[in-house]
Design a protein that fits this description.
mainly beta; flat; about 30% strand; four-stranded antiparallel β-sheet; three-stranded antiparallel β-sheet
């Protein structure tokens, strides 16, 4: 059996019914209030205060080496690594770009060999629709964006 009206009318002796009735009434009313909106008047800018104490000196800046290299016929790119003091290691990132737009080609760079002065990257490409066995090295002229940052920076 259905009860007409709001849930508040179906619960006359329940204190929750009054809450539901009031909530129903408020949801039907408009949010526009009478009267105009108060205007905000900003005064003129004050004089700047005195300068505070100079803070402590920070660490020396980290030098990030960034270079764009091109692949050779085998899809390899050679990167000259910067010198690092204190025998710290380098963190390398490489991003291969697909020539003439991405389309349906997925390209990635893999680190083949790394030394103290050089790193060799190999860039692979695949067409995802052809399956995982379709990965082949890219040809010459593919740009690889490489960054080198000292570890722990």
């Amino acid at each position: 059996m259905a009860v007409r009206g709001t849930p508040a009318q179906g619960l006359p002796d329940n204190p929750l019914g009054g809450v539901l009735r009031d909530l129903s009434r408020r949801s039907r009313s408009t949010t526009k209030r009478r009267g105009s909106r108060p205007t905000v008047v900003e005064g003129p800018q004050g004089k700047p205060g005195p300068a505070g104490e100079r803070g402590p000196a920070g660490r020396d800046g980290t030098v990030v080496t960034a270079v764009v290299v091109l692949t050779d016929e085998d899809g390899r790119a050679v990167v000259e690594l910067p010198e690092v003091e204190d025998g710290r290691e380098l963190v390398l990132t490489a991003l291969a770009t697909v020539p003439e737009g991405a389309g349906d080609v997925l390209a990635w760079a893999a680190l083949e060999t790394v030394g103290t002065e050089l790193a060799v990257l190999r860039v692979w490409a695949a067409r995802p629709l052809e399956g995982p066995a379709a990965a082949v090295p890219v040809g010459a002229g593919v740009a690889v964006h490489v960054t080198a940052v000292p570890a722990g920076s």
